[in-house]
Design goal:
2 copies of one chain form a homodimer. With 330 residues, chain A is α/β, with parallel strands linked by helices. Chain A has 2 domains: 152 residues, Medium-chain alcohol dehydrogenases, catalytic domain (Quinone Oxidoreductase, Chain A, domain 1); 148 residues, 3-Layer(aba) Sandwich (Rossmann fold). Helices cover 24% and strands 27% of the residues of chain A. Chain A has 9 helices and 16 strands. In chain A, the strands form 3 sheets. In chain A, strands 3, 4, 5, 6, 7, 15 and 16 form a 7-stranded mixed sheet that branches. Chain A has a 6-stranded parallel sheet with strand order 10-9-8-11-12-14, sandwiched between helices. Chain A has a two-stranded antiparallel ribbon with strand order 1-2. In chain A, strand 11, helix 6 and strand 12 form a beta-alpha-beta unit. In chain A, helix 2 packs across helix 3 and helix 5 packs across helix 6. Chains A and B meet through strand 13, helix 7 and strand 14 of A and strand 13, helix 7 and strand 14 of B.
């Protein structure tokens, strides 16, 4: 019987997670029955949303179970197949990450189309990350050419995709990031302005960068960033709420000094998950694939080496340890 | 030269306003030039939104000026006219309240249609109050028959109209109010449940009243009420943000423990002012007029007597001193 190593949730974190919440275990892989395939993972994704699944609460995805392997985006190669549609050597992306090998029915794996891009792109700009940026900006916030767009965590995986998509579409973009190096990278991506949230009061900095106000806010952070967006919104501004990393680890409830501007500026706010737009994925692949091929959307990854590095890579998401997409290469 | 008495803003309040912020002054009325009319007020409206105009900040209406008369909804009778469209004896509603008499160009006054309703209705269910309830519920929140609707300050002027409109339209309605008497009245209005926010934790009470969650929240209060609505929202819930009386007088910024549910439940939030829907006023008059005539929408007023009582009537809005619409009868 084949064995694999996988990271299990040892205990549910309270507040900020720590390395002791995770445990690397060796376990048996299920037998390869008819219709199933075995995949050896090459790349694992760690994402802030995973923190939510570590709590025992019902959300848009079921919680992780204590004592069971964690899950997450991964790209791997089929090494053994008893399914007609997948052959050994095929590259697939799937959600059975945090482990070296996975055995599951073929339907759990998606064969990557031949698009001439690196495998890791299927976890980044062509994966959950890129789709979240694309649909949140263009559908949820209904952003159009000419809009002034503010995106928080603009040096992060989703934020850096938002910056580039907005520029391709002819918007003015202001991105926030922590520290001068990340801000410089945000400007390299094409942002018209970068706001360093560590350098001083955010409201003042955002209003200086957007003296006429913002039409769109793409929220990855919540808290003070969302409040600064309230303060700076123009009439009929649209906010797409993608994430609130400021609040994922508990602490004081987020407070808002400028929330009443929702009324005076008639702000629209909407939460979304990229899966809300599954029916439009083919349009996303076509458009994003074109931008990547044309060099209009670039990716950058922070890569950690080896399965052992996975939980620390995840933890570092909450202290700004990544620029661009955080990945683990096996 | 004619004189009148009017309440002036003596000083801008900091936090909760007090009676010393207001001053009753006698002043000259401008001469009645061609095209102008003189109106003697019969009813004055006091409304929570006026608090915002007492701050020196740009909002959707310009701030009141220190040393100048306050303004607000009023109904009166024309006593002198140099305009062809208005005759002495005509009843008009207008925005030159907080005073006994007003002289202005005829365009500042709207002659009330003959609908067989009491004059005070033009400040209530057929006025700003009713229009705010109607458009916020049916347009901003896009509430439909079958929806579960939560409305805060349901014993207030706007809230009590929302309860009744929602029932006419076949919705399930939960209203919040402070204390058993107001809650009893909210149920009398037709609400399926009333939640006493003074009686205990709001989240628990709302979730008990709406075990399957809410589809729509009509917000007059902000703060804990809005947070309870976040906690209780069903997927794709729509929130119409009409007011946040909890925050009008400053204090700690509103904080939210459940705001991340905006993402998981894909909540849509939108601020509005009834004037956003001015082009649809004729539909509002037709529909609301019909409901009032049929006895489906009733009004209740808390009436204070005499111009002298105006600022205290206004102040009492912030301590729950009114049930239904707060008016001053001259």
């Amino acid at each position: 019987m084949n064995k694999t190593r996988a990271w299990h949730l040892k205990s549910r974190p309270t507040g900020m997670p720590h390395i002791g919440n995770f445990e690397l275990m060796e376990s048996d892989l299920p037998p390869l029955e008819d219709g199933m395939v075995r995949v050896r993972n090459a790349w694992l994704s760690v994402d802030p949303y995973m923190r939510g699944r570590m709590n025992d609460v019902k959300s848009y995805v079921p919680p992780f179970q204590v004592g069971a392997p964690l899950q997450g985006g991964a790209v791997g190669k089929v090494v053994e197949s008893r399914a007609p549609d997948l052959q050994p050597g095929d590259t697939v992306f799937h959600m059975l990450g945090w482990r070296e090998e996975a055995v599951a029915p073929a339907g759990a794996f998606n064969k990557v189309p031949a698009m001439g891009v690196g495998d890791e792109q299927w976890l980044g700009n062509l994966g959950l990350t890129g789709a979240t940026a694309y649909f949140g900006l263009l559908r949820t916030a209904d952003a159009k050419g000419g809009d002034v767009v503010f995106v928080s965590a603009a040096a992060g995986a989703v934020g850096s995709a938002v910056v580039q998509i907005a520029k391709v579409k002819g918007m003015t973009v202001i991105g926030s990031a922590g520290g001068p190096e990340k801000c410089a990278w945000v400007k390299e991506l094409g942002a018209d302005a970068a706001v360093d949230y560590k350098a001083g009061p955010l409201v003042k900095a955002l209003q200086a960068a957007a003296p006429k106000g913002i039409d769109v806010y793409f929220d990855n952070v919540g808290g003070d960033h969302l409040d600064a967006a309230f303060a700076t919104a123009r009439n009929n501004a649209r906010f797409a709420i993608c994430g609130m990393i400021d609040s994922y680890n508990g602490g004081e409830p987020a407070s808002f000094r400028y929330i009443m501007r929702v009324i005076s500026a008639r702000i629209s706010i909407k939460g979304f998950i990229y899966t809300d737009y599954m029916s439009e994925m083919s349009q996303f692949y076509a458009e994003m694939g074109g931008w990547i091929a044309a060099g209009q959307v670039k990716s950058r990854e922070t890569v950690r080496a080896g399965l052992e590095a996975t939980p620390q890579a995840f933890l570092d998401l909450f202290t700004g340890g990544n620029t661009g997409k955080m990945l683990v290469k096996l």
